[in-house]
Amino acid sequence: MKKQNAERPKSEDGSQYHLQTRAGDLAPRCLLVGSPERAEMIAATLFRNARRVGDHRGLKSYTGAYEGKPMSVVTTGMGSASTAIVLPETIRSGARALIRVGTCGALRREAVPGDAAICTGAVRLDGASENWAPIQYPAVADWRVVGALATAARELKLPHHLGIGVTTTCFNEGQARPDDSGYVPPRLQALHEELIRRGALFYSMEEATLFVWCSTHGGHMCGAVDAVVANRITGEFRVDGEESAARIACEALRRLDVG
User: Which residue from 236, 238, 240 is spatially nearest to 110, judged by alpha carbons?
Assistant: First the structure.
């Protein structure tokens, strides 16, 4: 058995330890999704000639082409810890521009299930990003990616909103959902109400992690567009809009000069 380096673990065959992809397996233009099922959907419905290049621990990766541009989709898993593991392996495998395609819970009445939420920056309640920069360091999307996402959404005539996301480590109490006894810690309820008053657009669990990592690890272009599946003001919940969000992201990546 070949001796491995514990500082940068790899599989015995030399592939990335978690994704099991190799240099060149991923296209420079790359989508990131939390769900392997969403990765499969994008590869099957939006890519041409898609092939699976990684499938380990539920982290499925596919590479194909969108409108003639080589493009990949990688599963990050849910939350900041899993995303933080996947990001460096994605870059080592060939990705250069990253757009998250996820789901979110809207904090504005007008953002209804099925709409797209384009993230301009994120509140850093994710935990992982504090390993890379002090909390005062901003979590912002690349302006070129935000512009490309907004242009794509307009030209596709898909309903969308731009604004600040809130990245949490916890889907339930961390986003002011009560536990099974009906309790939300008062400090979290107060923060939830303040975020709404200050105009935050949505809750999710990955944006701040993506933005800070890309800024501090080489300045990679990054952005995010989420399908709204819940509205925390009205209480409505409906899983809708994932393909629309993915189409916006693919169009945005196609337009970007990745190099």
Answer: 236
pTM as predicted: 0.97
Please indicate whether residue 238 is annotated as part of the active site.
no
Per-residue pLDDT of 69-92, as tens digits, reads 999 999 999 999 999 999 999 999
What's the mean pLDDT when you consider all of the chain?
96
Find the catalytic residue in 89, 206, 207, 242. 89
Q: What confidence tens digit (pLDDT) does each residue in 120-151 have?
A: 999 999 999 999 999 999 999 999 999 999 99
Choose, from 144, 177, 254, 255, the residue flagged as catalytic: 177
User: Cα–Cα distance between 135 and 162 in angstroms, integer?
Assistant: 23
Percent of the chain with pLDDT over 90: 93
Please tell me the predicted confidence (pLDDT) of residue 1.
54
Q: How far apart are CA 160 and CA 228, in angstroms?
A: 9
Identify the structural domains of the chain with CATH numbers, from first to last. Answer: 29-255 (3.40.50.1580)
Task: Tell me which of 100, 232, 242, 247 is the catalytic residue.
Answer: 232
Annotated catalytic residue: which of 18, 92, 100, 247?
18
Q: Is 192 in the active site? A: no
108 is catalytic: no
Catalytic, 18? Answer: yes
